[in-house]
């Protein structure tokens, strides 16, 4: 993982911007405590024109609340490692939170039948309590390529229309204009979605719904976060 110092300075932000041009997160393919630490050091949203990749990353990180960020693993090298570490932390937290439940009782005067009854009752209470614990919110980071019909179409107008798509569980990130060929450009734009609320298929259908502007939509990257 790259190390970044003095990210409040222009030189520090530029170094971070160069790194994030080819990386979704500071610590790997999934968010980690490294992202949370650098996010706190940056302090506020950077200028999109000067540091577009940092701005995209910063907006992505702000879609997670402080409690979610505190549960990110120290550092990851792959999405699978992140998921495994995150799951382990949650299991440890769940186990720690239930330390006050005595599963088996300790009254030496109870006979075997009474001990078994108490044990089963407390196991039931433990299972019910654990079942009520809310699970983590599954999210994904998606990057789309949106292509126009020809070079007469304003890419900024396409971006305006794409960002007009709003729904619960969807946060749009940074967008940029990328040359294709023969004077034709495309829009590359990223977003973070809550998996249970927003699907990539629905987003593609919504974007291609601007049929006078959009010829096609492709998914460039799809990472679980």
TrEMBL record:
Query: Magnesium: present as a keyword of the record?
Result: no
Keywords attached to this Swiss-Prot or TrEMBL record, sorted alphabetically, are: Elongation factor, Protein biosynthesis
* A Pfam family that the UniProt record links to this protein: EF-1_beta_acid
A GO CC term? eukaryotic translation elongation factor 1 complex
Span of domain Translation elongation factor EF1B beta/delta subunit guanine nucleotide exchange: 139-225
* Domain Elongation factor 1 beta central acidic region eukaryote: start-end pairs: 103-130
From what superkingdom does this record's organism come?
A: Eukaryota
Ranges of biased composition (kind: Acidic residues): 97-114
What InterPro entries does the database record attribute to this sequence? eEF-1beta-like_sf, EF-1_beta_acid_region_euk, EF1B_bsu/dsu, EF1B_bsu/dsu_GNE, Glutathione-S-Trfase_C_sf, Transl_elong_EF1B/ribsomal_bS6, Transl_elong_EF1B_B/D_CS
- Indicate, by first and last residue, each region the UniProt record lists as having compositional bias (Low complexity): 78-87
- State the residue spans of region: Disordered: 67-120
What would you give as a GO molecular function for this chain, any one? guanyl-nucleotide exchange factor activity
State the family named in the UniProt similarity comment for this chain: Belongs to the EF-1-beta/EF-1-delta family.
What's the protein here called? Elongation factor 1-beta
Instruction: Give the species.
Output: Plectus sambesii
């Amino acid at each position: 993982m790259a190390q970044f110092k003095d990210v409040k300075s222009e030189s520090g932000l530029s170094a971070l911007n160069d790194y994030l041009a080819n990386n979704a997160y500071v610590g790997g393919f999934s968010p980690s405590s490294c992202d949370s630490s650098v996010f706190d050091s940056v302090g506020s949203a950077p200028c999109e024109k000067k540091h577009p990749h940092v701005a995209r990353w910063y907006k992505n990180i702000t879609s997670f609340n402080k409690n979610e960020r505190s549960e990110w693993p120290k550092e990851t090298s792959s999405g699978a490692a992140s998921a495994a570490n995150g799951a382990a932390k949650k299991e440890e937290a769940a186990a720690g939170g239930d330390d006050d439940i005595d599963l088996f009782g300790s009254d030496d005067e109870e006979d075997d039948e009474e001990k078994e009854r108490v044990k089963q009752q407390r196991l039931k209470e433990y299972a019910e309590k654990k079942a009520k614990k809310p699970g983590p919110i599954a999210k994904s980071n998606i990057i789309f390529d949106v292509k126009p019909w020809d070079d007469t179409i304003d890419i900024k107008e396409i971006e305006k229309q794409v960002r007009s798509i709003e729904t619960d569980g969807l946060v749009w990130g940074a967008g940029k204009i990328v040359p294709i060929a023969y004077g034709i450009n495309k829009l590359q734009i990223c977003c973070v979605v809550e998996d249970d609320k927003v699907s990539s298929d629905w987003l593609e259908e919504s974007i291609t719904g601007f049929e006078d502007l959009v010829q096609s939509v492709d998914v460039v990257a799809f990472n679980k976060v």
